[in-house]
Design a protein that fits this description.
This protein is mainly beta. It is built from 1 helix and 28 strands. It has one helix at residues 7-38, and strands at residues 48-49, 56-58, 70-76, 89-92, 101-106, 117-123, 143-151, 158-168, 175-180, 185-192, 202-207, 220-227, 236-247, 284-286, 296-300, 306-315, 318-326, 332-336, 346-354, 362-369, 388-398, 401-414, 420-431, 440-446, 451-458, 465-471, 480-486, 495-504. The strands form 4 sheets. Strands 14, 16, 17, 19, 24, 25, 26 and 28 form an 8-stranded antiparallel β-sheet that branches. Strands 2, 3, 5, 6, 8, 11 and 13 form a 7-stranded antiparallel β-sheet that branches. The model is unreliable at 1-38 and 249-274 (pLDDT under 50).
């Protein structure tokens, strides 16, 4: 005989069945949402421009000197033969009779003498064979769109886009920088629809701070578009040296960029194409009187805040300095113009003054530095100054008596915190008869056979004194040079140094 369920049991069965149905419906809903989030967005057939968070154009920035909290997450100079592979899409959204998109063309860039190619938005193929750079002519109906991404700025503190733009077009034929959260609808961040500079490139920088730090904005696409209504015998729009930057989490966080729909991390060590050793340069000298350009930060320790600036004040009949401040404990920053020096023999020298004079303050003279030709710096700092010679100067106070000491080192690499490692050529030696509180000129004679001789001279008028010698020819073909400021341990959290001159002759 079958048992007849009681009212209580029938109610339990009903509740259980209902719960199971709801759970299945909820699971199906989650699966549908997951599928919607991972499926490819529909193909872009029309540039749909909508209202949304609007970018703010800001004064052009020196992206080489943004600070250690900033990282480049995307860069394009259009020099590589396979440049288009880096982009998510290169589209022609015009009618078939026009059929133009973005390609590259050899043209001079007044902002970058090393640039050989730029992107051009009126090309029938990737080599812009249809356009004459001497007599350009863009047709009506152009709608070329170049898209990068997706980017994830959800954990960033700030973000920006920097580019060089040559725009020569009729009013109403706009060039736009746009952002999309779905690769379908785009919000303009920068619109240029009136020729400003003729056939000259201009640097343009757009802040994307409105997209930074929003956990709901984990996928953003950035587009560069040129659109024309009528034809004109003009250049249209050309772009060069595009870079997307992000700042976040004390310089540790770096957002993601992918070459598909799902964001994936950048490689830990970006692959750089090594370049041949540059041809030797000539004598170099700068007194930093009016500017510190093109000096910029090239290498730094992790979790490091620093300030690199031009100081126009006068001090002891000297006016204009490169001033470098490191604000964290046990931290350093290396700055350089990444210019090529002459081959040995030469003398490299600088004149420096420590401002706050704390025990352990350090600064360095750097030469024989390496650079593999990739953008300097790379996100993981792998491209420049992995090898160099360093004359390090340290301010000491022992038994209330201040003095300077120096060390000569061959840096062959950096540890996990980006601190230099290598061979000590001359260990710390005290410098006698030099005023540690004033300006000191440091010189190193670097001979063709690798012999290095160190000299120091203050403003007392007693002349230069020879301190010590060592030999190393390992980096004789490394032609780059720079300066370093470094703090001590936890007892010293700020070091400020002024440099009055840098010379190689």
């Amino acid at each position: 005989m079958n048992a007849i369920p009681s009212s209580k049991n029938r109610l339990l069965i009903l509740v259980t069945s209902t719960t199971l149905v709801l759970a299945l419906l909820l699971l199906a809903s989650f699966m549908s949402i997951a599928d919607a989030q991972t499926e490819e967005p529909p193909p872009l057939t029309k540039l749909i421009i909508v209202d949304g968070p609007v970018g703010k154009e800001i004064p052009p920035v020196d992206t080489n000197n943004l600070g250690p909290e900033w990282r480049p997450v995307f860069q394009e100079d259009f020099e590589a033969a396979n440049w288009v592979d880096k982009w998510d899409e290169n589209l022609d959204l015009s009618n078939p009779s026009v059929g133009l998109k973005w390609g590259t063309q050899q043209i001079g860039n007044n902002l970058d003498g090393s640039s050989l190619k730029s992107g051009w938005g009126i090309c029938a193929d990737e080599d812009c064979g249809n356009v004459d750079t001497y007599a350009p002519n863009y047709p009506g109906g152009v709608n070329s769109v170049l898209i990068a991404g997706p980017f994830d700025f959800s954990k960033a503190d700030d973000a920006l886009i920097d580019l060089e733009l040559l725009y020569e077009a009729n009013n109403g034929d706009p060039f736009r920088v746009l952002v999309s959260e779905n690769r379908v609808q785009f919000t303009p961040q920068l619109t240029v629809n009136q020729t400003v500079s003729g056939s000259q490139f201009e640097q343009r920088t757009v802040s994307l701070s409105q997209y930074a730090g929003d956990p709901n904005k984990t996928r953003l696409w950035i587009a560069f578009a040129f659109e024309s209504g009528n034809s004109a015998s003009k250049m249209g729009a050309m772009i060069d040296n595009i870079s997307v930057w992000s700042a976040g989490e004390a310089g540790v966080f770096m957002p993601y960029v992918a070459y598909g729909f799902t964001p994936t991390p950048l490689p830990v060590t970006p692959t750089a194409t090594p370049t041949a050793t540059p041809e030797p340069g000539s004598d170099y000298e700068t007194q930093f009187t009016d500017t510190i350009s093109p000096w910029h930060a090239s290498y730094w320790s992790e979790n490091n805040s620093y300030i690199l600036e031009h100081n126009a004040d006068c001090d002891d009949n000297r006016c204009g300095f490169l001033e470098l401040t490191v604000e964290d404990s046990a931290a350093f920053v290396l700055v350089s113009p990444t210019l090529v020096s002459k081959k040995p023999p030469y003398t490299v020298e600088t004149r420096a003054l420590i401002k706050d004079k704390q025990d352990g303050d350090k600064y360095s003279l750097v030469w024989g530095g390496s650079w593999n030709g990739a953008p300097c710096p790379q996100p993981d700092l792998s491209s420049c100054f992995n090898e160099y010679y360093e004359l390090r100067v340290r301010y000491r106070i022992v038994s209330k008596e201040p003095f300077l000491e120096y060390r000569l080192m061959k840096v062959t690499g950096h540890d996990s915190s980006n601190q230099p490692e290598g061979d000590i050529l001359i260990d710390w030696e005290k410098v006698k008869d030099i005023n540690p509180a004033g300006w000191v000129k440091w010189s190193v004679d670097y001979e063709a056979d690798g012999k290095m001789t160190v000299y120091a001279e203050d403003d007392s008028g007693s002349g230069s004194q020879k301190l010590g010698s060592s030999s190393s020819s390992a980096f004789a073909d490394n032609p780059f040079f720079g300066l370093i400021v470094k703090t001590d341990n936890d007892d010293n959290t700020k070091t400020r140094v002024k440099f009055d001159i840098f010379r190689i002759q």
